[in-house]
Amino acid sequence: MRKIIHIDMDAFYASVEQRDFPEFRGKPLAVGGSPDGRGVVATASYEARKYGVKSAMSSRMAMKLCPHLLFTYPRFDVYKEVSNHIRSIFARYTDLIEPLSLDEAYLDVTDDKMGIGSAIEIAKEIKEAISNELNLTASAGVSVNKFVAKIASDFQKPNGLTFIGPSKIIGFLEKLPIDKFFGVGKVTAKKMNQMGIFTGMDLKRFSEMEMIQHFGKSGKFFFQIVRGEDNRPVKPNRISKSIGVEDTFETDLHEYEDMIEEINRIAEKLFKRLEKADKFGKTITLKIKFSDFTQITRSKTFFTSLDQLQEIQKQALELLDKLDLQEKRIRLLGVTISNFANMEPTYEEGFQLTLF
C-alpha cells in the first residue's frame, strides 16, 4: 500500500496578504474583485468565509454578504515565490511530488528520503516547516490513495491533519455526504440527490453498470472511489495540456445577452485558474452543449499566448458570434485554453490562425 499525503494551503492568497500586511489580519478579506462590484473573488480569508464569501463569487454578491469586506489585488509573483519555497520543503522528504496548483500537491512518501517511515509524522513535520519558515498554515490529508487523501485534507480545515487508514476508509466514505466527494460538482450532486443518493452508502446501492448508464465514464470512477479504490500514482512530471472551465445551467439559455454574460463569467474563472497555474496558451476553444445534448466546439489559435482576461473574453465571444444560434437553447458553455508556452502546438481540426 502506498503512503500518500495531500497538502492544501489554507486560504492561500488571502493568508499571504494577511501575513504581509497587518491591516488585513483578523479581518474579512477578498483577494481579487473590487469594492465597486466589478470582478470576481479569487480567494477569501476565513473571516470572510464566515459570511458566505467564497472564491469565484462576484464582488457585488460578496459585498452584499459582507458589507465591511476588504479587497486587495492579487500578487501572483509573491504567491509563486512562496509556492516554490513550499515545494522545496516537500522535496526534503520525497521526489514524488505532484503539484495541482500553487497551493496544493500530492506527495508519495512510501519510501521517504529521511527514513521516517510514518506518513503522519512527515505530514506533521511539513506543516511545522511551513509554519516556521513561512508563517503560514496548511492542512494535510494522509491515506493510502490520492482520492481519500484529498478528501481528508479538507476535513479539518484550517490547519488540520486527518489520517484515514485502510480499516477506516470504507466507513468514512459511506457516511460522507455526496457533495463532499471530490469530482462531484453541484450539477452531479443534484442529479444524484434526485436518484436518492445523499451519502456514500446510498451510492454503493448502485451497480457499476447503473452508474455508467447515468453518468457515463464518470460513473465507473464513482463506483470505484466509494469503495476506496484508486490506483492512480503520484506523477511528479504531471503536465496540464489544457485548462478549462465549463458550466451546466439549471435553465437552458436562449437569450443572447445571457450567453454573453455567462461566457464573460466563465472566462473570469478560467483566467484565475490560468494565473494560479502560471500557464497561458495560444489556443482558445469554446464548447457548447445544446438542450438536445448535441455538442460542438470551435477553436482559434494565435502566435502569442492569451494572457489578458479581456482578450480571452473577446476571443470567446467572437467564436460565439460566428455561430447561428437562432432557436437554439444552450445547456452548457465552456472555455478552454491550450497550447501552453514551451509546448508543441496541438491544433484542433478547424482552427483559425489569426495574425496581429
Automatic annotation (TrEMBL):
Pfam families: IMS, IMS_C, IMS_HHH. Its EC number is 2.7.7.7. Keywords: Cytoplasm, DNA damage, DNA repair, DNA replication, DNA-binding, DNA-directed DNA polymerase, Magnesium, Metal-binding, Mutator protein, Nucleotidyltransferase, Transferase. Mg(2+) binds at residues 8, 103. GO terms for molecular function: DNA-directed DNA polymerase activity. Residues 4-185 form the UmuC domain. Its cofactor is Mg(2+). The keyword rRNA-binding does not apply. The record marks 13 as: Substrate discrimination. It is an enzyme of class 2 (transferase). Binds 2 magnesium ions per subunit. The active site is at residue 104. It catalyses: DNA(n) + a 2'-deoxyribonucleoside 5'-triphosphate = DNA(n+1) + diphosphate. It is found in: Cytoplasm. Poorly processive, error-prone DNA polymerase involved in untargeted mutagenesis. Copies undamaged DNA at stalled replication forks, which arise in vivo from mismatched or misaligned primer ends. These misaligned primers can be extended by PolIV. Exhibits no 3'-5' exonuclease (proofreading) activity. May be involved in translesional synthesis, in conjunction with the beta clamp from PolIII. Belongs to the DNA polymerase type-Y family. Monomer. This is DNA polymerase IV. It comes from Sphingobacterium daejeonense.
